[in-house]
Amino acid sequence: MSQWAMSWWAKTYFFIINIPVKLFVKSQPIPTEPIKELNIDINKPVLYVLPYNSRIDLMVVRQLAKKFNLPDPLVGIAIEGKSYPAFIFIDKNPGIFASPTQKERTLSILTDYLAMHQQNADLEVQMLPVTVMFSRKPDREDKKKISLQVLGNIRKFFKMIFSGRDCYTRFSHPVLFQRIANTETDAKQLALKLARVARIHFAKQRIAAVGPRLPNRQAMLKKLLNSAALTEVINEEAKSKNISMAKAQKNALAMLNEIAANFTYSALRVTNMVLTWAWSRLYQGLKIRNVDPIRELAQNGHEIVYAPCHRSHMDYLLLSYVLYRQGLVPPHIAAGINLNFWPAGPIFRRLGAFFIRRSFKGNKLYTAVFREYLAELFIRGYSVEYFIEGGRSRTGRLLNPKTGMLTMTLQTMLRGDLRPISIVPVYIGYEHVLEVATYANELRGAAKQKESLWQTVKAFCKLKKLGYGYVNFGQPIQLNQFLNQHVPKWRDSINPTEPQRPNWLTPTTNLLATELMQKINRAAAVNAMNLCGSILLCSYHRALTQSVLIKQMDYWLTLLRKVPYDGLVTLPDEEALALFEHARQMNKFTITADDVGEMISLSQDQAVLMTYYRNNIQHLLIIPAVIARIMVRHKTVTADQLNTQIKHIYPLIKAELFLYQTDEELDTYIDQLIHALAQLQLINIDGNHLSVVEDKIVNLKLLAASSDEALQRYTIAFTLLHKNQSMSRSELEKESRLLAERLSILYGINAPEFFDKGVFATLVNTLREQGYLNENDLNTQNMIQTMCGILNPLIARDIMQTIQEIGQ
Question: Do residues 584 and 640 lie in contact, with contact meaning Cβ atoms separated by under 8 Å?
Fold first, then answer.
């Protein structure tokens, strides 16, 4: 390779091209922080690798390189006193003036770079693949030729003019020449392989970003209507209801039209612009984590199902917005039929929403129609999103999963489609949930408000100071691997023509649902609001001095950093004081000042609303809090005693808050927490004996209080069982809820979920699974007595006395 230097003509050419690029193009980088997220070393030379010959694309890349302080692609790479090209194009462009020698020139440059690295082990040049896309409009099925955004010079110029603000630049992980240079001695053969891999990489990347071709909606619905599975059900519908086949088909088509999305790229573009403006107005920023593995799945051809938790109606828009901005195709979204009101319904439908009724029970035709539509989405390669909780959480904690959509997803696999399906758990969190006040009213007994245009506009006009939004992608579950692990012979149930319900389907779906909920919680986000709120709710009268609050925040942050609940949990980078200052700006606390300093408190209404944010992260703190509660009540215990007590309580907490640790993992987790508490000087360790540090008892009590409501619920149930072991499940659930409701009134327990029906239903079901509901069984009596012996001392004396008196 001869020494490279840019001629005056090339400099003039690039200068001229750069003028319209500056005027018309504003490219969005993917990922948004490429250096940090892709571990690009800005101190090492960079060879930019572009998919095909486009000077416009190169100028766009140069703009972003300057923005992120990356090396300028027009400045050569200096090696041993010589200058070499800092960019290559893998292929020629499709124009009639394309250079026929483009591939040979690229291969020559790659060969020489590889040869230099083979000869010099200290040389470290990074290859940085970069793709520039002007618009990501999918092709339509009725279009014969598939476009992968590869345009000739003239078309690219006009594309730049009209789509310059709809431009995305995807940076891939850098590859060091040194890592591959010695995998083969022949540098030219290695360069050929490298170029071939790059072509495949860029092609997969473009397909993953643009998505499958869009269907002709009516043609797709007609095809579904005539499918063998639906034809059979329609025949049954006509016979059972004594109506004509034409009428039954008309009913099925009406259902398909009610359900089916009508995705359009123009609606997506407009919504992207509107939401970019809206998020900047409403939120201080959006924090997105762990999206890169999802891009890899999409690029490798996986069918992706997004399963987010459900906090707010904003979730629908937020997740699609984030995915689009991160270079992924927005999914088709299963939305409640209650959102199909004008004008939201038509808009959501054009953004990929398909509408689902709240219940399928007793409607065989609707069930079949919906199942066939969902299967068609999977077969065509569209990503899908559904909320596994069914509806929005009114309490801030995860709801028990609804398994209908998961069952249909597994049934789709049993059709024999070879495309791998991966389910991606997604944690969505906010520092302000728009509907939180409405949730509190509904939990007090108010009727659920019906969604409407006026309600939406009214709510939007009130929005301000919403803090940050969080979207954390959890560890994906690849269904093939999951089924191979839990049902090794699942492929024996494959039938391409009929929906299958093998015996293993229901228990496996339940197992999958639980694992998904656990993985959502393993990707939680701690923020200023849920941290401040959790601590204030743990204090007497819901009030602390500013100094004590900040000190306690520091303790909790240190504990979460030293012993992370999971590697995907995100913690704030800021320290306690900065987090408090951010939280106070959101005006959710009452702050009073005197000569001593500031007092931070929550009114009764504020406390009810704050429980929502506390519940978002309660699972991260529950085990540390139980440890603290045991220490505070007993003052001194052995590590073995502590471990034994927690292991008795753990199955109840695990089921309620979707914790994930096995018994072995729990042992390690408890041991790490004990040592972290000792490092914080909250407890002392003397061999196997643990004791409270009296000077820090206030701080330990604040941590312990985070577990009180859960422990009180468990104590209520076991107190009732201890007095009447023959209680039925329904009686136990009803009496426990009633006792909890009375307790909340007597002691001002403001958490709406304290006597929530769903929480007690989960508790009673867990008691059954753990063997506590075996009537007149001596071993069960002993188990209940043991649990009472563990729980009763952990409850404040006055509350324990009240529980025993009311439970008589």
Answer: no
